[in-house]
Amino acid sequence: MPTAVCQVCGAMPAAPVTVRGHQGMVVIMKFLKREGLFCRTCALASFRDMQADTLVLGWWGALSVFITPITLLSNLGALSGIKRMPDPVAPGWRPPLDPGKPVFRRPAGVLALIPLCLLGLVMVAFPVLALLGLAVGPSDRDDSGASTPRRDYPTLTAGSCARNDETWPAQDLKPEPCDAAAAQYRVYAPANGVCEAGDYVPYLMYSKDDATYLCLRPLKR
Ligand SMILES: [Zn+2]
Question: pTM of the prediction?
Answer without folding.
Answer: 0.56
